[in-house]
Amino acid sequence: MNKLFAALALPLIALAIAFAAPVSAQSSREAVWIQIAARPSLREAESEARTYAARLPDVSGYALGGGWYGVVLGPYAREDAERVLQVYRAEGQIPRDSFIAFRRNLRSQFYPVAADATPPAEPAPAPAPAEPAVQEPEPQQQTAPQSALPDETPAQARRSESALSREQRMDLQVALKAAGFYESAIDGAFGRGTRASMSDWQAARGFEPTGVLTTAQRQVLMDEYNAPLISAGMARVEDTKAGIAVQLPAAEVSFDRYESPFAHYTSKGDAGARVLLISQPGDKRTLFGLYDILQTLDIVPLEGPRQRGSNSFTIEGRNDRIVSFTQASLENGEVKGFTLIWPAGDEDRRTRVLAAMQASFTRLEGVLDPAAGGDAVQDIDLVSGLEIRKPKLSRSGFFVDGNGSVLTTSDVVAGCTRITLDHGYQAKVMANDAAGGIAILRPAEPLAPAAVAELSTASPRLQSEIAVSGFSYEGVLGAPSLTWGKIADVKSLDGNTAVARLDLTAQPGDAGGPVIDSTGAVHGMLLPRQPDGKQLPEGVSFAVNAEALRSALSAAGVTAASKSPAAGSLPSAAISRLASGMTVLVSCWE
């Protein structure tokens, strides 16, 4: 079986490499490497690099700083590196905790030694803030010797192992499990399962498989496990203004500014990692308000688990660009926590950095001044310096029954991963007639509209006055507005009697809104301004008439209310209230 596995592995690896040609380290800012090992001495790192180079292409070695040396593969384009990483991991060619490394993580090259072997350019140091309120200590220097630890006999290894604490034994089991050699409980007891995993790890690393790790081998195992943290430069930061102490990835982020309730730690390089420390006085309402606000921000993608308790919450969001995790809790009238934003595709480092931040998070005395950052430039699209998430497209719609079913224009539901009503209620497409321009939505949970459209049972009279209710500027104003006009014709320019022509100047956001007459009856639904790409004169709009809307609703199983022409006219204020109650903002999210 092992021979068959090995035979199958080689074609897969060859295929991955064939599609992942290395790129020049100097020719592309997008070049990345795969870090497969980190050693505390140059001699160990050179030996490891030669071992890997004997069976893998594109092996090189770079100093990492702090007395550490890394063995890497590459450089590759980012998408090629992810494919190579996946294949090599699956076939056991590299450790499971290997990860994507960036140009800024690598210093001088030590392997292979060649005339054209030039180190990646070092990034320029970020300027210090004008008034640094946070003291960021330098990452602690590793205390491991610069040469390999002396070898031990099995008896000596057992004696040194017996001096380990239970926590240290559990750490070794965790590292073995992360490397894919151990599957049992993390209990610190070195039974047959742990011994077997140690033996397998030793054999995989070229050591004699005794089942008892020497001091030097334990060092190598833990170095492998901690390589993601080493590359991220984890260091303790005490932010006295925010009243928080925590381990932060100092190689990836640095302090930038305060904008209450956040202390912003922005990216230092190309990866785009960011950290927010959360600190503000408040109560449960403050905590729950923060929970709601965070989910409107671009840094918190829509997909991902979230949980809110009585005094704390967690939010995870994922998309094809980033993964963010937020935790916050309320204690003694203070809401404190953090948000970690990390690039997608670097999951190994993200999970290790997140675990280190969670384990080290400590509340200190004090809380961030609510006025901090009050002099920052204000923007309607920003909350405390963070961008509000925006939909791909927003249009208008209107309620047609007491459960909250909505009529809207079909273009707003095309290519959406998520559709919302008034940004807060998810909806699904019940029917979509792209040819007729009509879409019918159903909210995920029943709603209780303030008003429901009543479709007119009579054709409108030419030149009669009507109004369109819609979110003219796609929700910027927060409420629908009325645009007045007249019925210019009961058919479209090409003679379609299901579409009326209006003498009315509408905005793009008005599309999908109800066309209402003076009695409050709905005569139709406004269509987008340029049907079929035609350029029309100013003041020309079109609307699907009530008969076509009633037919589409009936086909979808929705019964719409009707209004006879005998009804009397309503005051303008009453029409405005009615229109506002039935009109809803429909948004399409990518």
- Percent helix: 10-25%
Overall, the morphology is elongated
Q: What is the number of E strands?
A: 31
Q: Kindly state the mean pLDDT as a whole number?
A: 83
Unreliable parts: 1-19, 24-29, 114-148, 378-382
> Approximately what portion of the residues adopt beta-strand conformation?
25-35%
Main sheet?
7 strands, antiparallel
The largest beta-sheet arranges its strands as 8-9-10-14-13-12-11
Discrete helix count:
11
Explain what this protein looks like in three dimensions.
The protein has eleven helices and 31 strands. A seven-stranded antiparallel beta sheet has the order 8-9-10-14-13-12-11, with helices on both faces. A six-stranded antiparallel β-barrel has the order 18-19-22-21-20-31. Strands 24-25-26-29-28-27 form a six-stranded antiparallel beta barrel. By secondary structure, the chain is an alpha+beta fold. The N terminus is likely disordered.
